[in-house]
Design goal:
- The protein is α+β, with helices and mostly antiparallel strands.
- Helix content is about 30%, strand content about 30%.
- It has twelve helices and 22 strands.
- It has helices at about 25-30, 70-75, 80-90, 100-110, 180-195, 215-225, 225-230, 285-300, 340-360, 380-395, 415-420, 450-465, and strands at about 1-10, 15-20, 35-40, 45, 50, 60-65, 115-120, 125-130, 145-155, 205-210, 235-245, 250, 255-260, 260-270, 275, 310-320, 325, 330-340, 365-375, 380, 400, 425-430.
- The strands form five sheets. It has an eight-stranded mixed beta sheet, sandwiched between helices. It has a six-stranded antiparallel beta sheet with strand order 3-6-1-2-4-5.
- Strand 7 (about 115-120) and strand 8 form a beta hairpin.
- The longest helix is centred in the last third of the chain and has 21 residues, at about 340-360.
- The protein is elongated and about 85 Å long.
- The two termini are about 40 Å apart.
Length: about 475
């Protein structure tokens, strides 16, 4: 029995090959399932005309009639892109300090022959323009676009890397523990290909953004004219994030809210200090704070629609200096995550009202409440989500695109860009042995085997959203 399947990965390398497998019919039937499985298949395999007898670990992604295909030209340059990524990894830079990174990005974009390049946007941001082989039609069909943007974040985290790898971070206490080194590389690989082929009708913007990690680099780029000065004709915006929870060879996409808003609150309870043996002469702020922590949870369990997820987490309580002293102040700090802006606004207001009510009930003075608004909800536009999913299907196969991937409580400042332009943010699977550590872990490492996958996604979006007449 001979069955043919598509394999997108072998032992940390990344290919898109037809593989003929002489095995038992039962095993062949098992492999023919449409859902991706990771299997060890001992035996003999014919790959590109060569017989392999060693044990291989392929990623089966469905039957061959409904599979996508990686861009072969990008695949052929994998060693180059891998070297770029690992160099970025070895030289991480924190938000708004990405001088070396943005310099290399700009130099490479110039070497590709892009049509225009803007540097020092929001400090260290870079924006490149590539014009297609044909101009966009004067009267554009609503199905297509005239100009779209792609975005990648560049900054690292203040985390000491614990990986034992040749390209480990050379900077103490700073590491690419979220994969932004890979994001930059995937977008550079796409820019290199598209600047050479220009097989699209219209214009592309490549946006390399600084300071995503909590600093709001996207917001600063907008404030400095991202869509009002540099990319004024941009109609849609797309980006992606590597996702260790998804296996290699998959994409996770969903319409609507994908990532939560992120806001922090700081509440100072003002009591009346005194001797701990005479609490009746005091107003204990620790007691007030303890009740407030409990009451804040009721905002979720009793006030919040169970079909509209939200989280309030108190992560810090500080008060007092000694066991026999009741302090006069207690400080509560925490975070709020929501998936709808109306819920976000209501909960932030409710936290302040709850702090005031609980303090008043115990006779404490009015509390000091500070709300630090962070990132809004990342909301994918319906139509752009369809286009993003179609591009992903053309790369990895339709059965490897999870169209209703679960939303995450993590936040992403790409949300600011989505407030100004319709677009879609996608997750690209990178999980396999050795690359399954959580984002922000000191043991995290980007999986180089997905570089071609991510770059191919950008290419398919560009060519699919802005097809040339001869296509």
């Amino acid at each position: 029995m001979v069955r043919t399947f598509m394999v997108v990965g072998f032992e940390n390398s990344y290919y898109n090959l037809g593989i003929t497998c002489k095995r038992l019919p039962a095993l062949a039937d098992k492999l023919r399932i449409s859902m991706m499985r990771q299997l060890f298949l001992p035996g003999r395999f014919l790959v590109n005309g060569k017989l392999h007898s060693r044990q291989l670990r392929p990623l089966i992604v469905g039957n061959c009639t409904r599979l996508g295909e990686l861009n072969h030209r990008i695949q052929e340059e994998h060693p180059l892109f891998q070297a770029w990524r690992q160099d970025f990894h070895a030289h991480p830079e924190l938000g708004f300090q990405e001088e070396r990174t943005s310099g290399l990005v700009a130099d490479r974009l110039r070497s590709f022959g892009v049509d225009d390049i803007q540097t020092n946007v929001a400090g260290t941001g870079v924006i490149a323009t590539i014009v297609g082989r044909e101009p966009a039609p004067e009267k554009q069909d609503e199905e297509f676009s005239k100009c779209i943007g792609f975005r990648a974040d560049m900054d690292a985290l203040p985390i000491q890397e614990e990986n034992d790898i040749p390209y480990k971070s050379t900077y103490n206490g700073i590491g690419h523990m979220c994969g932004h080194d890979g994001h930059v590389t995937m977008l550079l690989a796409a820019a290199k290909y598209l600047s050479a082929t220009r097989n699209f009708a219209g214009k592309l913007y490549f946006i390399f953004q600084p300071a995503e990690e909590g600093l709001g680099g996207a917001k600063r780029m907008l404030e400095e004219g991202l869509f009002t000065e540099f990319c004024t004709d941009c109609e849609e915006i797309y980006g992606m994030h590597n996702w260790p929870q998804l296996p290699v060879g998959t994409f996770g996409i969903r319409s609507g809210p994908l990532m939560a808003s992120c806001d922090d609150f700081f509440v100072t309870i003002n009591g009346k200090g005194g001797h701990a043996a005479m609490p009746n002469m005091c107003i204990d702020p620790v007691l007030v704070a303890s009740h407030l922590v409990t009451m804040l949870q009721s905002l979720i369990s009793r006030n919040q629609d169970p079909f509209d997820p939200a989280v309030i987490s108190v992560s810090q309580i500080s008060a007092g200096t000694a066991t026999n002293i009741i302090p006069d102040k207690a400080i509560i700090k925490g975070t709020v995550r929501t998936f709808h802006e109306r819920t976000r606004a209501r909960l932030l207001s409710d936290i302040e009202n709850m702090a005031t009510s609980v303090s008043t009930a115990f006779g404490a003075s009015l509390p000091n409440c500070e709300i630090h608004q962070g990132f809004p909800v990342t909301i994918n536009e319906d139509r752009c989500t369809v286009h993003a999913a179609q591009a992903a299907s053309s790369v990895v196969g339709e059965h490897n695109v999870i169209h209703d991937v679960s939303p995450t409580g993590g936040a992403e400042d790409f949300a600011f860009m989505l407030q100004h332009r319709p677009g879609c943010y996608a997750f690209i699977g990178q999980g396999e042995a050795g690359y399954d550590q959580a984002l922000h872990s000191p043991l995290y490492n980007f999986n180089d085997s997905i570089i071609a996958t991510g770059a191919s996604w950008y290419v398919r979006l560009a060519e699919g959203r802005m097809p040339i007449k001869s296509s």
